[in-house]
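Handout, page 2. Input:
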Amino acid sequence: MSRAALLASFVLLVVVLVRPVNTSGQESEDKRTELDPHAMGRRLAEGLRATKGCLGVESARMDGGKNVIFAWFEDKAAVRRWYFHPTHKGFLAMMGGPGGDGEARPLEHVPDNTPLLVVASLTLADAPRIDGVRLPISSIAIELFTPAPGGAYVNERWSPKAFPAPPHMRRYDSPPGGESRP
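Output:
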């Protein structure tokens, strides 16, 4: 992903998670809805979930101040479908990014048929700290993860059920009394 696309994606993340809304009544209802971070977040999550191959979406604010979106995909083709999805392209264009143009080749280094967890994180700051970005952010990142051997869970996993369980993941079930058993 290009630097411009990366920055545009994180500008979007800031707007979705933390941007204040002007509710002075001077804007039309449509404009207020468009700028409402909760409405934007819902549209973004709905767009992700509507993308064939997106297996789940979660968001969180971390103790260290990072705002994070987790999105699980069945493979890199599904992530590319999201990258070129009208919702993503619209958000990129709205933020001044490339709009997910057809020349981009996201994930060209990732093997086909690889399940992916895409984690987008952004850290707010008291003033802009990234060249070319006027929003008060100090760091942004998009990171990719794949299932690795190992791990364990009781009753349910954190990742969506449709996301492949890593090899050798140990499952424990909790009986009605509450004690775990292998």
